[in-house]
Amino acid sequence: MRIGLAGVGRIGAFHAETLRGLDGVDDLVVTDLDTEAARALANRLEVGFAASPAELLDSGVDGFVIATATPGHAPLLRQGVRRGVPTFCEKPVAASLDETMELCKAAAATDVPVHVGFQRRFDRGYQRVAQAVADGELGFVHTLRVNTHDQAPPHAAYIATSGGLFRDCSIHDFDIIRYVTGREVVTIYATGANKGAPFFSEAGDVDTAAGVLTLDDGTLVTLSATRYNGAGHDVRMEVAGSAGTIGVGYDRSLAVTSAEDRADSPSGPRHQSFMERFLPAYRAELTAFVDVARGLRPSPCTVDDALQAFRVAEACELSRHEGRVVRLDEVPSL
After folding, report:
1. Long-range contacts of 131-134 (CB under 8 A, 24+ apart)
2. Where are the beta strands (DSSP E) in the chain?
3. Cis peptide before 92 (omega within 30 of 0)
4. Would 226 disulfide with which of 80, 128, 208, 309, CB 3.0-4.6 Å?
5. Consecutive H or E run containing 74
6. Hey, which residues does 28 pair with through a beta bridge?
7. Closest Cα partner for 201 from 227, 229, 224?
8. What is the pTM of this model?
9. Please, what CATH class does the domain formed by 2-119+283-300 belong to?
10. Average pLDDT over every residue of 133-155
C-alpha cells in the first residue's frame, strides 16, 4: 500500500516513522506547508516527498493521514473524501462545532472510510476496562473518575489556536468515557482557573479545569484536567461499580508520591508526554487504519464519534462561561 501523510510536526513525524515500519505499507509520501521540513523528514526516513497535499493525492495513494495543525484538518479531510481515499485524521476534525457537523454529513454521504485519531481506544488498559464494563464484571457502574494532566504546558502560540483545554485536552476523556461505558452524556457542570502563564487568560482559556458529568443511565463522572503537573504526564480512569473497581494508569509510571508510611511510591520512570504515555496505542491505531484502508475492517472511530465528543467539550465551555449546569441537548447536533 502507498500511504500519504500531511503534517510533519511532532505527531506527524512520529506517525511517519510508525507507518514506514508497518506491515502492508510499501511506500510512504510526506508533505507539509513547511516544504523544507517535509523534504528533510523524507530524506531522513528515505520515503517520498510531495510539495503539496494536492500533489500527494494526485500521486495515487491508498490511504491519507492528516497530522497537521488543527486549521488544516477540515480542508484536508474534505480533499481526501472527495478523492475517495480512506482518510485518517487527528482530532479534532475541525475547529468549530458547525464545521464538525458539516464534515459529519459529508462523511455520512459517502462510503469512503474516515478514522479519527482518538488513540486511547487502542490502549490495552482502556480496552480491558471497556471489556470489564461490557461483561458486567463490575456489577452496575455508578462512578467514573477521569483525568488528563500534562506535565508541562505547550507553547503560547499553540494555546491560541488549540480551541481551549476542554476541546484540545479533555476531549480525549469525553471520547473514552463513551467508548468504555457505551453511554452518552446528559448534563455537564464545568469550571476552570488560571494560576500559570498569562497567555492562557489572554487566549480566553484556562490552564486547569474540573467538571461533573451525568450519563444517560445516571452514572456520575468527575473530570480533572491541567497543563501543569510537574510530577509527570498523568492520564487515568477509575470505573467503580457495585461489584468492584478497576483503573487505568496505575502502574510504575504513576506520577504520584504516596504520603502513607507503609506504602511504596511507584518506582517509575514517569512519563513526560502524551506520546510517551501512549506510544503502543498510537502504533496500534495506525495499524488499524491500514486495515481500514485495505477494506479489512470498518472505521473504529468515526466522524460522528468525534462530533459527540466535541459536543461535550462545547457544553463544558458553555458551563464554564455561564456558571451553570448545561444539558447536552442544548448543544446543536445533526
Report:
1. 132/239, 132/246, 133/180, 133/181, 133/182, 133/239, 133/241, 134/182
2. 2-6, 27-31, 48-49, 63-66, 87-90, 114-117, 141-149, 185-193, 208-215, 220-226, 234-241, 244-248, 326-327
3. yes
4. 208
5. helix 73-82
6. 3
7. 227
8. 0.95
9. alpha beta
10. 97
Q: Are 246 and 252 in contact (CB under 8 A)?
A: no
* Pairing outcome for strands 27-31 and 2-6: parallel
> Within the chain, which residue ranges are assigned CATH 3.40.50.720?
2-119+283-300
Q: Under DSSP, is residue 127 helix (H, G, I), strand (E, B) or coil? A: helix
Coil/strand/helix, residue 194: coil
Contact 312, 116 (CB under 8 A): no
Q: What angle do CA 202, 207, 210 make, to 5 degrees?
A: 130
Q: What is the CATH number of domain 121-276+309-330?
A: 3.30.360.10
For residue 297, what is its C-alpha cell?
A: 475492517
- The DSSP element (H or E) to which 76 belongs, if any, is helix 73-82
Question: pLDDT by residue (tens digit) across 212-248?
Answer: 999 999 999 999 999 999 999 999 999 999 999 999 9
Between helix 279-293 and helix 10-20 the angle, nearest 10°, is: 60
In single-letter form, the type of residue at position 304 comes to D
Q: Are strands 141-149 and 234-241 parallel, antiparallel or unpaired?
A: antiparallel
Report which residue type is found at 182.
G
Residue 17: is its pLDDT beyond 90?
A: yes
